[in-house]
Amino acid sequence: MSEKIKALAATGNLSTGFQEESLVRAVQQGADFVGCDAGTTDSGPYYLGSGNPRGPREGTKRNLRIMIREALRAGIPVIVGSAGHAGGRPHLEWTIEIINELARENGWHFRLAAIDSEITKEDLLGAFRRGEVTPLYPAPDLNEGTIQQAERFVAMMGIEPIQEALRAGAQVVVAGRCSDVAIYAALPVLDGIPRHVAYHAGKILECGAASVVQRLYPDCMAAELHQGGFTVEPPNPALRCTPQSVAAHTLYENADPYHIVESGGTLDTTAAQYEAVNDRAVRVSGSRFVASENYTVRIEGAALAGYRSIVVAGIRDPLLLRQIDKFLSSLRAVVSRKIEESLKISSDAYTLNFRVYGWDGSLGPLEPISQVEGHEVGLIIDVVAPSQSMVADILPLVWHTGLHHPIPEYEGLISNFAFPFSPPGIDVGPVYRFCANHLWQLKDPCGPFRMRIENL
Amino acid sequence: MRELWEFTKLIRSKNAGPFELTFDIMFKDADCFHHVMKGGKLTRELIAHLYKTQVDQVRFFVMERLLAVKISIPRPVFSGDLLDTDVYGGQFHGPLVRLPVDLA
Q1: Smallest Cα–Cα separation from A368: which of B84, B40, B51, B90?
Q2: pLDDT at A224
Q3: I need a surface site. Which of A150, A191, A324, A337 has the fewest CB within 10 A?
């Protein structure tokens, strides 16, 4: 058991970076490990669905180079979670390939653990049939059919698979989809730090320097964990934490400000105390960890939703602008009839969405302002259909009909849309949707996660 | 009539995962916090009305110690789904910023 553990978060997201001197200083001051979160579901379902990492590759490589170089020098582990953004197998392998490349280029030798969190449809179907999979709220409908049709599923690991990799002597641990908190809690808990301390520190560290008063740029964050609490302090002297800035960070991206649900239990910060140690460091204590009866991991999945093309157009005519909603609903009725007649495609086979920037672009049907108030709007005509060729048939019919669609105030042929581009249409390609927000009850916290060791 | 933003140092919305939205309202000081909360305009009912959901779907946390209010609702459209307008959920707070909050 350790008296204290010094945890260092390189940054809030591996692709965004940090100040090199902050990380070097923090490691030299005695960090026990360097962690970094590389993923999130925030950017939507595309990355999980497509298998593409979010990148950028060079930026990710630069950050890994500095982290691993300093960690090797100090003889401490590096832990990366949610590799390649979505944490699926292709995302994990993309990250492992970068690390292999770095090791070759720099002549580094170390033990690397890759923890795969992608789950096969067969395994998930088995769990589903055994009743081990339950929906959170709200959740998409998940059934045997939607499991079969989905592109990819991942399970979000807790601390245990990372601890297994550390016990196997890995100096660099790359986890597929992983709880942000687990990246920072795994090693401290292994060394005897209580869970409530480790998980709360993890929650503060996972966004890097986001818990400072004003984050000038992405940067590192450090915490010293003890039996009774932890002290958080940014390694960069230009940044500072206050009790309020740290407490406020527990709100960020959580639906419930006091209860953070993790695999194996819930962190309860209701009674947490935040005290200033000096003008830059804050001591945190008093949170609780309530172990859950069952061990569950969250399942994320993405399914192909179709293929998208869009048209961007400006609208500047004041008479058209004052009736934009009527104009678009009338246009929708005309084009859906035309598509049905000429292409034999019924309107439930595709999705047509008019996004009017300058009116309801950001909020859609939740926009409380019922009229366009400005002098122009930007229109996005958004079509999604089961194939790119079907979209290619539908989209020109929509924009060309809309271009000349009449309004009552004018006689003769009018041209309603200012297209900035020729051709007006842009193919976006495949689009995905999240198809699971479920929990999977496990007997073994490491069960679905497969670890591979590479001695570089 | 003063508006909510005049009493706050932060009003933001954000995904809490792809299926929920969360709003954080941080007040400038205790006076601002109490003035707005006593005004009775910032309520679960208002959020349910603005975001077209049921009152019992609105989780409303008043955190006096932090001089903050946190509100969470299910996402009307899941993040990145075909009709979503805001993948990160970062602009859903717009209608709250100019909310008239003074006592009538």
Answers
A1: B51
A2: 98
A3: A337
Yes or no, beta carbons of A46 and B88 under 8 Å apart: no
What's the whole-model pTM score?
0.95
What does the H/E/C string look like for B24-72?
EEEECCHHHHHHHHHHCCCCHHHHHHHCCCCHHHCEEEEEHHHCEEEEE
* Cis geometry, peptide bond prior to residue A408 (ω within 30 degrees of 0): no
Return the H-helix or E-strand segment holding A309.
strand A295-315
Residue A101: CB atoms within 10 Å? 14
Average pLDDT per 10 consecutive residues for chain A, totaling 456 residues: 91 93 96 96 96 93 98 98 97 98 98 98 97 96 97 98 98 98 98 97 94 91 97 96 90 89 96 96 97 97 98 98 97 98 97 98 96 97 98 98 97 97 96 97 97 97
Residues with Cβ within 8 Å of A200's Cβ and at least 6 positions away in sequence, in order, are: A230, A250, A267, A269, A272, A284, A287
Nearest-by-Cβ selection for B15 from A138, A253, A257:
A253
- Chain B CB contacts of A44 below 8 Å: 18, 79-80, 84, 87
Closest Cβ–Cβ partner in A138, A254, A361 for B74: A138
User: How far from chain centre, in Å, is Cα A229?
Assistant: 29
Q: Which two tokens stand for residue A406?
A: 């009449």
| Residue B103 binned pLDDT confidence (cut-offs 50, 70, 90) | low
| Interchain contact, B80 vs A363, CB within 8 Å | no
Closest chain A C-alpha to B19 CA, distance in angstroms: 6
CA dist A58 and A55 (Å) reads: 8
Contact A118, A152 (CB under 8 A): yes
What one-character-per-residue DSSP string does A56-121 give?
Answer: -HHHHHHHHHHHHHHHHHHT--EEEESTTTT-SHHHHHHHHHHHHHHHHHHT---EEEEEE-EE-H
B45: which 2 tokens? 């009912």
Q: Is A47:A92 a contact under the CB 8 Å cutoff?
A: no
Query: Whose structure tokens read 């601002």?
Result: B32
Question: Which of B22, B26, B77, B91 has the most A C-beta neighbours within 10 Å, making it the best mutation to test the interface with A?
Answer: B22
Q: B34 in contact with A at a CB cutoff of 8 Å? A: no
Residue with tokens 């579901």: A41
Both structure tokens of A78: 């590096």
Contact between A197 and A230 under an 8 Å Cβ cutoff? The reply is yes
Question: What confidence category does residue B1 fall into, taking pLDDT thresholds of 50, 70 and 90?
Answer: confident
Instruction: Give the DSSP per-residue string, A165-220.
Output: HHHTT-SEEEESSB-HHHHHHHHHHHTT--HHHHHHHHHHHTTGGGGSSS-SS---
Average of per-residue pLDDT across B62-77: 95
B90 touches chain A (CB under 8 A): no
Nearest to A45 by CA among A350, A308, A431, A353: A431
Reported ipTM: the value is 0.94
Q: Do B16 and A384 touch (CB under 8 A)?
A: no
What is the pLDDT, as a whole number, of residue B51? 97
A136 → chain B, closest CA residue: B19
Q: Is A388 helix (H, G, I), strand (E, B) or coil?
A: helix
Residue B2, phi then psi, degrees to nearest 5: -90, 155
